[in-house]
Write a structure and sequence with these properties.
about 375 residues; ABC transporter involved in vitamin B12 uptake, BtuC; globular
Amino acid sequence: MNAPDVPLATEGDAAAGHARPAASFGRSAVALILAGGFLLASVVVGISVGPVHLGVGSIIDATAAHLPLLHVHSPLSDTDEAILWQLRAPRVVLACLVGGMLAVAGASYQGVLRNPLADPYLLGIAAGAGLGATLAIAYGHGGFASYDLLPLAAFIGAAAGVGAAYALGRTVGSGRSPATLILAGVTITSFLTALQTFVQQQRSETLRETYSWLLGRLDTSGWRDVILVLPYVAVSVVALLLHRRLLDVLSVGDEEAAALGVNVGRVRLTVVVFATIGTAAAVAISGLIGFVGIIVPHAVRLLVGPSYRLLLPLSLLVGAGFLVCTDMLARTVMAPAELPIGVVTAFFGAPFFAVVLRTTRMVGP
């Protein structure tokens, strides 16, 4: 008697089921296109704006002049060509790599630690990199210390800091649980910061150079820096994007994720390792640029929701564009002098962080 109703209900459910993925795919595509457009616009503005203005049309023609088979003549003078290709272009590309990496790492840490206020520096990366850079500046010699030894020392210090935090977290409490890792990171950060302060006091004549690095900088970047950091960022970003669905599973809790067949410990270790490698490489070149890993993922989350399947690729694009814009401000607000880029990101990040804290408190118990 009720049989005629069953096909109708099933057909309606099927239609709704097809409509929801289609609508979701459409929203995701629109979000990715908008984020890509923001990144493209940021790159154009970052390259064209500066003490020497380069028109967008001139930049396009100059770029086409370097492509084969087009036979386009560059309208720029030799000086402007040098400014474009030796100064601004590598700086903008490096800002894209660093900003995208910090944003993706921040989102990944927030997912794997289930802490919305986690950032790429939470597990001792900043303290380790700061100590490594301080040692290189204090005990290195001349140009070698600033150009070759410093990035290597910062990278090793960042990796060692996270390694120590993770090793400490495994020996305390519940092992690899998010809370234990965070507490271990705070402990290692405090210890490494104390060592850094001791070295700075012993070599007070290097304080100016040390703080210049600690506040973040892209002003000395060149294509060599881009080539140096690109492999680490590329491998790390690909690995993190491949784990974005597992981050969604981890968001339900460790026990529930394990019940669904996820090796929680292995996933957490893998995500932390690749986020750390990419962040350490970025920090080794740019110094400590704060708040990018908090501002960008939270802004994206407010717009598109908490799913890491979309959050991670959007954070990559928006983070790259955001750092290009902040770097443009850093080199133009006080031209011909430059602000440390970390000061600019903190100017936007601190109020945003306060808003996140307030929102978290309002929606909490």
